[in-house]
Fold this sequence. Notes:
The chain is elongated, with a radius of gyration of 27 Å. It has 14 helices and 15 strands. The strands form two sheets. A nine-stranded mixed β-sheet has the order 9-8-10-11-7-12-13-14-15, sandwiched between helices.
Amino acid sequence: MFSRYKKSANPGKPAGAAPRGKIAELPKKNAAGAEEATDAPTSLRRQKPAAPARSATADKDQKRKERMAELKLDLHRELLENLNLAALDTASEQDLRAEINEITNEVLNQKAVVLNRDDRTQLNQELYFEVKGLGPLETLLQDDSVNDILVNGPQQIFVERDGRLQLTDITFKDEKHLMRIIDKIVSAVGRRVDESNPYVDARLADGSRFNAMVPPVAVDGSLVSIRKFKKDKLGIDDLVRFGAFSEEMAAYLQAAVACRLNIIVSGGTGSGKTTTLNALSSFIDDAERILTIEDTAELQLQQTHVGRMESRPPNVEGKGEVSPRDCLKNALRMRPDRIIVGETRGEEVIDMLQAMNTGHDGSMTTIHANNARDGISRLENMIAMAGIEMPLKAVRSQIASAVNLIVQANRLQDGSRRMTSITEITGMEGDVISMQEVFRFQRVGLTPENKIIGHFTATGVRSHYSERFRLWGYDLPPSIFEPIAAE
Ligand SMILES: Nc1ncnc2c1ncn2[C@@H]1O[C@H](COP(=O)(O)OP(=O)(O)OP(=O)(O)O)[C@@H](O)[C@H]1O
Ligand SMILES: [Mg+2]
């Protein structure tokens, strides 16, 4: 779609790959309810605590939930005693479900408990998830509208949908139950988490990024954060359709990637950095050799020639670490055309900048920063923290000659994720890195529903790289760089 700006007469450099990967429309939001506080008694005489104002149906619901939780616990115990755990891995889903159904029936008969059909189906489903999956988390993992799952102790599970956090009514029975699920996840990847190793990173079987921290460091019960893996990553087309950036910006970025500018995607946590990086990578020519380096492999490049690396923390004895810097150093010996580092946050910054400066142009990475200027300061700080003694001016000129473009991702107050600015680094003026913003998101107001109103616009400056674009066969029409007048 954006390749229309590419001249056809340039056989050596085919037009950038068409954006790939589609994702279903994001679902609509649910509203979360709020609870009310009761008044404190004013008399001196001690009064019986007032019963919270709850409806009879809420009470019934709560009782039902408790009864089901107890039943589940009994049944789970029964299952573990009766199931042949060794055969579990090979058992078909159908057999396992049938077995669970049978054991449930036996236990319900023994206890003389009668459940309606829905409750029974739900109970069987939850038991199946306890045995085979990740217990209460499983429904959320299977819900495509959920981006993040955040557990604050056994009784509180939040999810993020459409950029907003919502409290769910799903809970774990208790901390032991939560710990059992955490153990299940981390032991599957050969890690351990306990009082002496209280936090851990892992990847779920479906590729989701997982982090857990357990007590006593986690004060009110274990903390779990899951970034769900999207099988169909958002592509450029999707991002334009969702209003993350404009068609003009997409056309500019296509030229920037194809002409091998070094690009940094900057943004806050969960602002869409990795998604943007992934989408930008779709513009890389299929003939190039790309090496990716990540802490947890999230990128899904569609090119044929991709080498993926995942760094590794030290093991329990403090050995075996493979840092992002180790991966990067090794990558330089692996004849890459481009290097993509999932996130630069430490000493690997030195090697990243050097790679960008020395023949691996067209490399990309992300950093945590609130705007382009902050991003540059972050890079300077990382270099200083890496223990490199270099005058500030030398550091800056290294950054200025390595980085061409900073793309700023943002999650705005209404939950929408947008690329709020594209800034070019143009060189040095004295001791200062000079830069110019080429595109930005112009906010103009809020709707009554607190949705942000605004539009993307060029700032009117001429791109510093227009000559390069032209030489590489990307004739961007001047209209792309014309600012849109505010309404
Ligand atoms: N423009 C967008 N519209 C809708 N959803 C988006 C958009 N960009 C990203 N997302 C979704 O938001 C979530 C967070 O995105 P992503 O992983 O790219 O963020 P990040 O900035 O890399 O986060 P982190 O700082 O945790 O690494 C993902 O589930 C992703 O699918
Ligand atoms: Mg990320």
